[in-house]
Amino acid sequence: MSLPATYSPDTHIRNSQTRSLRHRGFTLLELLVVMVIIGLLAGYVGPKYFAQIGKSEAKTAKAQIEALGKALDQYRLDTGSYPSTEQGLAVLNAPPADGSRWHGPYLQKALPQDPWGKAYQYRSPGEHGDYDLWSFGKDGQLGGTEEAADIVSWQ
pTM of the predicted model, to two decimals? Predict the structure, then answer.
C-alpha cells in the first residue's frame, strides 16, 4: 500500500491537532448546567451567610454595651454616682464641669458607635436599674425582632 503523493507526516500531525482542539470546549448545555448548580448553591448558602453577619453585629453591640457598663461602674466608683442623662456617655472620655473626682478617661478609645453606625442610648437614673444603656438595633427604632431587635444592658 502506498501513500498518496500529497501525504506528509506534518500534515497528519496538523490534522490531528486541529481535531483535538475542536473537541476541547464545553457545550452550551454543559455551561448552563454548571450555572444552574452554582445558582442553587448561592441561593442556599447566601441567606445562611448573611444571617451569621446579623448575629455577629448583635454580639458586637452586646459586648460594647458590657464594656461601656464597666466603664460606667468605674466612673461611679471614682465620682460617687453614674453620669446623668444630660452628661451622657461623653464624660467617660472628658471630665464634666465639676470633675474634681474624675480620674478618667474610662475608655481607651473614643466613644464607640453601635455596629450600625448610631450612638448608644443612655439614661440615668434608668427604668431598669441605676442606668439604662441600649442600642436600637439595625432598624434604629424602638422595638423590633431578629436583626432589628434592641440590644439592652438590663437583660
Answer: 0.65
